[in-house]
Amino acid sequence: MKTIKQIHTNIVRGLCLLVAPLFLTPMLTACNDDDEIQKESIIVADKDVSNTPFDEWLRVYIVEPYNLKIDWRWTYNDVRLGYYTVPASYESAVILAHVLKHCCLEAYDEVAGISFTRSNFPKQIVFEGTWEYNNNGTKVLGTAEGGKKIWLAGVNHIKENIAQGAGQLNSQYLKTMHHEFTHILNQTSPYQVAFKELTKTTYVADSWSKEPYNVDYRKRGYITSYAQHSPGEDYAELYSVYVTSSAETWQGYLDEAVITTVNEAGAKTYDYTYQNILKKKLDLVRTYMEKTWGIDMDQMREVLARRLNDVVNGNVDLTDVTVVKE
Q1: CA distance to 13, 34, 129, 137, 241, per residue, from 5 (Å)
Q2: Pair 150, 143: CB distance under 8 Å
Q3: Rg (the chain; Cα; Å)
Q4: Which of 94, 227, 249, 263 has the fewest beta carbons closer than 10 A?
Q5: By the 8 A CB rule, do 185 and 293 touch?
Q6: What digits encode the pLDDT tens for the residues 129-165?
Q7: Which of 190, 69, 191 is nearest to 124 (CA)?
């Protein structure tokens, strides 16, 4: 009869043979007849995941004042399925959380009051380390769900985007946040039916990124190519592009909407049809934001520009997770 020690030895040897092809040398050298089985797992699970200085900073400066949770750790139940995603790094998550606090949350506090921000901002923001890439060559910067949650992708690229300046930081992160926040506000209080009527026959759904729709879209009454997707996306694009653009940049977009033709004699004629449509769309968005939510879009644009410059000029410490005790 085999002894208990012999049985134990055979089991260990059998396990080594089974797993060796997966782990090669490390597993072969680890399995030895004389090794003692450890009583505790060598995989140490963190029993309290909210134990970093950043988690405490989030609790004090994000969770408590805004009733908002930033999920910066990758968890299966929170990330969007159907995309290859990676976790956000600790360093990048800290930086982006500071950017969102300074350029989104506190910007809305300044313009509409902290009660507005606390009541209407989503209750959860999920960080994903990389962008979500589609098979049509586009990438998802962020998305919103049910008025409660926003996914924000590309977190691990935050430092390089800040280094490239205000325009890049806006286009990759902040415009996305304002776009998705517009969806949330629209879900709470629907926008005007009149907006949908202005270009109701020319929305193209998922074809917005393909030829011929990916060029000359302003000459069809859309502020961006993606605005052609649907009325809801059009509305969110109008708001988010306006508040993250300078007056000069916005006027340049309107100028692009003018259709210029030249006759055989060289004389030019100008068609302002779609520039006027863009202006009408903006007027509807402006009225909705002011009357429904108390947001002056011109004031918001000024506040966002100032706060964005604070970030790119290094006037905000984006790595400090110190909690000031009161």
Answers
A1: 12, 10, 48, 60, 72
A2: yes
A3: 26
A4: 263
A5: yes
A6: 887 767 676 777 767 666 678 888 899 999 999 999 9
A7: 69
